[in-house]
Amino acid sequence: MVDHIYNDEIKRIKEYAEENNIPIMQDAGISFLISFIKNNNIKNILEVGTAIGYSSIMMALSVKDVKIISIEKDESRYLEALKNIKKLNLENRITLIFKDALDVKLDDNFDLIFLDAAKGQNINFFNNFSRNLNSKGFIITDNMSFHGYVEKNEEEIKSRNLRGLVRKIKEYKQFLENNNNYDTKFYDTGDGIAVSQSKI
Questions:
Q1: Residue 172 has pLDDT above 80, yes or no
Q2: What is the pLDDT of residues 114-129, one digit of tens each?
Q3: Is 182 helix (H, G, I), strand (E, B) or coil?
Q4: 104-142 b/e (C-beta count within 10 Å ≥ 16 → b)
Q5: Per the CB 3.0–4.6 Å rule, which of 109, 154, 157, 168 could disulfide with 120?
Q6: CA–CA separation, 198 vs 123, rounded Å?
Q7: Residues sharing a CB contact under 8 Å with residue 4, sequence separation 6 or more, in sequence order
Q8: Could you tell me which CATH number the domain at 4-198 has?
Q9: pLDDT of amino acid 173
Q10: Coil vs helix vs strand at 6
Q11: How many angstroms separate the CA atoms of 127 and 182, rounded?
């Protein structure tokens, strides 16, 4: 998937994420995403939720002509992502924006919008950026299963905050299923992935 010369750096980024409790995409999910980008000839990507840059780096290293704009509102994660992208010489292909995604207005158009930020805001992210999608473009959302919690009965979830978050993800799923402008398919791979293609 990625040239072996980058393997040590990718390993270091994954270890940093684990040590600092920073959620990054699961291996199966990132493999799905990269295959999807290759199979659908995706050239321009907007990522909402950079974290420390892992998924944007993996996309850029695996698909040589792809360009990515990625948005992150957490300063320490944004700075770590900048450092990681610079180490891998990807500054000319990955552009980072340090801002709350709901305050970002872009003129660019994208073949793919990848939502991987605050799960409770997915409907707002979708509505905010869908106008930046190219004709027949895709919006991909990660964590539709949220570590298996979405499939559980609500009574099984002890934390009130977690119950609220799971409810928001279920509402987002309904929003996708009822959205007549998009065809959405759900995949069990990784932590659950939704792929929504614009009909327009």
A1: yes
A2: 999 999 999 999 999 9
A3: strand
A4: beeeeebbbbbbbbbbbbbeebbebbbebbbeebbbbbb
A5: 168
A6: 15
A7: none
A8: 3.40.50.150
A9: 97
A10: helix
A11: 12
Per residue in 2-37, pLDDT tens?
666 688 999 999 999 999 999 999 999 999 999 999
Residue 1's pLDDT band, with cuts at 50, 70 and 90, is: low
In this structure, the strands spanning 67-72 and 182-187 are unpaired
pTM flag (> 0.90)? yes
Give strand ranges (E) for the chain.
44-48, 67-72, 94-98, 110-115, 133-141, 182-187, 193-198
Contacts of 85 (CB under 8 A, 6+ apart): 53, 56, 57, 91, 94, 96
Q: Which position has the token pair 């321009």?
A: 44
Task: Report how far residue 138's alpha carbon sits from residue 130's, in angstroms, rounded to the nearest whole number.
Answer: 9
CA atoms within 13 Å, Cβ hemisphere of 145: 13
- At 29, the amino acid letter reads G
Backbone φ and ψ of 145, nearest 5°: -95, -25
| CA distances (Å), origin 188, targets 120, 140, 148 | 20, 13, 10
Residue bearing tokens 């895709």 = 138
The per-residue pLDDT for 98 is: 98
Q: What are 62's two structure tokens?
A: 């695996």
Residue 42 reports pLDDT greater than 70: yes
Residue 124, CA distances (Å) to 22, 30, 117, 137, 138 in order: 23, 24, 11, 18, 16
> What b/e string do you get for 76-88 counting C-beta neighbours within 10 Å, with b at 16 or more?
ebbebbbebbeeb
Look at the alpha carbons of 60, 113, 37, 107 in this order and tell me if their dihedral is positive or negative: negative
